[in-house]
């Protein structure tokens, strides 16, 4: 699984972007890829990547707890 940080997520429009930890690239995330989870800006998440119509999409997104 990939990890990253939510750059932004617009709940009313149902999409946003995650900054990937390894590549530092913006990865598109749609509400259908959240599996019922709720994400907000700056949340740490795990996800899988799939090819979408316009590039890579995050799916099976879930929040991860920060380890202090």
From TrEMBL:
UniProt keyword annotation of Cytoplasm present: yes
Compartment(s): Cytoplasm
Record-annotated CSD domain positions: 1-63
InterPro entries: Cold_shock_CspA, Cold_shock_domain, CSD, CSD_CS, CSP_DNA-bd, NA-bd_OB-fold
Pfam families in the cross-refs: CSD
PROSITE patterns assigned: CSD_1, CSD_2
Predominant location category: cytoplasm
Keywords (A to Z) from UniProt: Cytoplasm
Keyword field contains Cytoplasm: yes
Family matches, as CDD domains: CSP_CDS
Identification of the protein by name: Cold shock domain-containing protein
Species of origin: Nibrella viscosa
